[in-house]
Every structure is written in C-alpha cells, then in structure tokens.
Write a structure and sequence with these properties.
The chain is about 45% helix and about 25% strand. It is α/β, with parallel strands linked by helices. Helix 2 crosses helix 3. The relative contact order is 0.21.
C-alpha cells in the first residue's frame, strides 16, 4: 500500500493557531467528513474515543490519531501541518505539528494495519519530517508524502 492510494491532495491541510488536541481533532475530522460521507461528529467521537485510551503522539512533533468507522466504505487519510504546533499530550512534552489521521472501515483489519505502518514510517523519518516542516503549501507537502 502506498500513501497515494489513501491520501488525496485535498486532504492535505495546513492549520494555524490550534491550541489543543481536541481542536486539532475537530479540524481533521471536519476535513475528512467533506469526502467521507459520514457525519463529522461521528468521526470526531470515534477518533477521540481512541485517543482517550492513550495518546497517539509519537514524539518529536508527530502524531497518528486513528479510528475504525463502521459507516466508511474505504480507508481515508487526512494529513495536517500545524503551524506553531498543538498540545497533544505527547510523552516527550513537545507540541505536535505533523499529523496523519487514519480512518478505516470497521472490517479493514489488515489494510488498517498496513496503512498505519506506512504512515508511521513516514512520520518517524527525520529527513521527511524536516522537509515537511519546510514545505509552504499543500502541493509541496503532498509531493513529499507520496514520492
């Protein structure tokens, strides 16, 4: 599975002045709802419920919130670059500024895990993260993520 299989350029966003994890998740799920044909509140509730089990922040400014949504027909991803970062309860105490959100259908076991693994590889790669932080628009970010 390639990131380009599950991420559209329309779902690569940049955000400013995000103060909390909750606000960040609301922005991500609102974006996802535009193309998911699922209510944004439903998406938010599922992702927040997963986040309440334990933070999905990896440290070094990255996070990968995710959830399984019964109403979804296919895997969907949103990527956000958060200018200035947002508090996300990361173990290292750093604000999160690079976030992949993965939403998967309820029955997508192996595909969900493969997508998590692909996104995890990208946001654990310090070179890629450095490039993403320097990128100035969604097109540049998408290109970095899908090359």
């Amino acid at each position: 599975m390639k990131i380009s299989d599950i991420l559209n350029i329309a779902d690569v966003i940049t955000l400013d002045k995000i103060s909390s994890k909750r606000e960040l998740l609301q922005n991500l799920t609102t974006q996802a709802a535009k193309t998911a044909n699922v209510d944004g509140r439903t998406l938010f509730d599922v992702v927040l419920e997963r986040e309440n089990l334990g933070t999905t922040a990896f440290g070094k400014g990255t996070a990968l919130p995710h959830g399984r949504i019964p109403e979804l027909n296919k895997i969907q991803t949103v990527f956000a670059k958060v200018n200035g970062g947002a508090d996300f309860d990361a173990a290292d105490g750093q604000k999160v500024d690079l976030v992949f959100m993965l939403l998967s259908p309820e029955n997508s076991g192996a595909d969900h895990l493969m997508a998590l693994a692909e996104m995890s590889k990208l946001i654990k790669n310090e070179n890629i993260c450095s490039q993403l932080r320097k990128a100035t628009n969604s097109s540049e970010i998408y290109k970095i993520l899908t090359e």
